[in-house]
Amino acid sequence: MNRTSAPSLYIRLRKRMRASRGDPIRLGHIAVFLTEPEYEAELLELELYRPEEHDGNLLLIDMMLVVRKIKERFPFLTIEHFGDPHTLVEISGKTRPPSTFLIVLVWLLLFIGSGLAIMNFHADVSMAEVHRNLYKLLTGKQTERPLLLQIPYSFGIGIGMIVFFNHLFKKKFNEEPSPLEVEMFMYQENVNQYVIAEEYAKINRSPDREPPPP
Length: 214
Prior knowledge:
Blueprint: E1 8-13, E2 16-20, E3 25-26, H1 27-30, E4 31-34, H2 37-44, E5 47-49, E6 58-62, H3 63-73, E7 78-82, E8 86-92, H4 100-124, H5 127-139, H6 147-165, H7 179-205
Parallel strand pairs: 1-7, 2-8
Antiparallel strand pairs: 1-4, 3-5, 6-8
């Protein structure tokens, strides 16, 4: 090569991606990079790993494996890495359409369960007695069913839940994540960290996926 300096490859691995079982994992699937135009097409198709049955449904592609594969094909490239040093790959098989029966069953369970939770909470704090006392303080009259307070309160629970979760069916009111989305994100992050630790342990036990010693 007639170059005054070695060409550079600037690369950043994606945090997580999904691949079909049996398909090879290529560099273009798990990373974004910047390099000389003449190398881009071949780097995009560079095969890093071919998942096998014993790999399960989660696989970790480490930066050391990426560097080894790139150097095998382009030993003259200077690699500059940014971001996380690994990508978590979810290996998926054939997907089946969702069951309408299961969707309806889960919806009913959640609806009934949430309703029972609200009613049990109201029973624990004697909400009906609180409404009766408030009604007597405001109007000076005693009644067993203070609908003037109970009806707006019932609507307020529903409106409050919509505002709290920032969702009405598929519509979001603003870009701020809801508490449920934040909790799901934190749960997924914890799961990812656990899986990454487990996958690194597998890499250390598997000589086929270890980088060669320096």
